[in-house]
Amino acid sequence: MKRLFTIALLALLSSSTVWAQRVLTLEECIDIALQSNLSIKRAKNQAEIAKAQYTQSKFNFLPSLSAGASHSWREGLQFDQTTGNLVNTTALSGGMSIDASLTLFDGFSNLYGKQQAKASYQASEEAVRGTVQSIQAQIVGAFLQVITIKEGLKMNEATLSLLNEQLDRERKRENAGVGNMEQVYNFQSQVAQQQLTIVNQNNQLESAKLSLIQLLLLDPAEDYQFEGITSNDAELNKELEDYNTVYSSSMDFSPSVKSAQLNLDAAEKNLQISKFNWMPTLGLRSGWSTGWSSNLRNQGDGSVVDLSTQLDRNRVKSASLSLGIPLFSRFQNRTQLQTSKIQVLNSQLALEQAKNDLTNQVQQAYLDLLNAKTSYAAAKESKLSLDQSFDFAKNRYDNGTIDFVTYLQSLTAKNRGDLELVRSKYSILLRQFILDIYKGELMEPGTN
Question: For 44-54, what is each residue's pLDDT tens digit?
Fold first, then answer.
């Protein structure tokens, strides 16, 4: 009974492990990354800050309004503002006021400030898209690395199965007295080497899966499997799109180029603000205030004038128009202008660098895709020849007309051909995905 219980428990745990296994496709991996990646979250936070600053730049055109109230206690010789007398007593006093001000002209600072804030906000939104594009490329590369290793592992396991069949055959031949132990030992050695290759490849697979899981910010303690990408010869042999079309689409979409252009626009607006810092400012101000004091008394009975009467009697209204002319600012305006000019130059360089980077990336990805397609076509032809050669060598070896070394060379060549076909196939998929990302065709909705 104890043994049966143990077997049942192990079976239950095994079924639980299988049930807990999570299978992820490339699309799901990209979606997880776009939702959880910290770089994307930081970029979105920066965009929210820029949005708030842009909103504030609109509010800067509105008038300001403030209100105040005061209450004070004084003892000794003092001037009572409410009564207009010099008194030597203990007095209580208070007041309230409302002030409003409006900037009529500030050298276009608010106007250009709004335009600058808008460009900065739009640049930050493009920076979010650029971060998304970068993360997509990383996920695609890591995912296809996992799939490529898995496909290679399947081929090596198939080769191991073939070697085990050959080993079993040689053992039977040796036991029947028509074979020899040398062939048995040869196959045992090849089986052991192939097992070592599979162990090493399993380790590579686990490392590749861990790298992908870390990119996705998933729990590495859980069991994840990544679903392969299916493709047919028609897709792999599809005619390559013209480079100029790919480049033009990538340049039109590129968030990094758009962000750099918008940052340049923002720097130019900041330069305009610096140029107008020498202009005068004109402002309008108005206010209303009133107050009360315990020293204000009725002439008849000497009683303190009641609060409502004082507040009504002591009302003051004011309005003023102010003009400010900057005569000398310790060269701050000149320094700010020089700094703004340099910032424009740096922004121009950043835009040029963004365009150069994109050009280099698209050129490299396009060339890699072209080379991958060429390699795939050659690998297909090579695989046909190698498969035929191996089948022929296997038959001859089974009939005893070639030695083990020749058979092994044919098997090794076949394995290399199989692996090269897999690599070139997934290289095409990877490079095509990268170009699609550059063109914006993998941008997920809702990531703006």
Answer: 999 999 999 99
Beta carbons of 109 and 272 less than 8 angstroms apart: no
What is the rounded CA–CA span in Å between residue 425 and residue 173? 40
Backbone angles phi, psi at 136, to 5 degrees: -60, -45
Q: Confirm if 29 and 143 have CB atoms less than 8 A apart.
A: yes
Residue with tokens 């590369």: 141
User: Looking at this protein, which amino acid is placed at residue 388?
Assistant: Q
46-35-221 Cα angle (round to 5): 125
Sheet holding 85-105, edge to edge: 64-80, 85-105, 281-293, 316-324
pLDDT band, very low/low/confident/very high, at 6 (cuts 50, 70, 90): very low
Structure tokens, 392:
């022929």
Cα 348 to its chain centre, rounded Å, is 24
Q: Region 106-135: what's the mean pLDDT?
A: 93
Rg (CA), the chain: 40
Query: Nearest-5° angle of CA 161, CA 224, CA 23?
Result: 90
Give, in order, the Cα–Cα distances in Å from 109 to each of 270, 272, 341: 9, 8, 17
Q: What burial letters (b/e) apply to 251-269, b meaning 16+ CB within 10 Å?
A: bebbbbbbbbbbbbbbbbb
pTM (predicted TM-score): 0.79
Task: Determine contact, residues 116/175, Cβ cutoff 8 Å.
Answer: no
Q: With CA atoms as reference, report the closest residue to 247 among 355, 113, 396.
A: 355
- Burial label, 381 (beta-carbon count in 10 A; 0-12, 13-18, 19+): exposed
- State pLDDT tens for residues 386-405: 888 888 888 888 787 888 77
Q: Is 441 exposed, middle or buried (0-12, 13-18, 19+ CB in 10 A)?
A: exposed
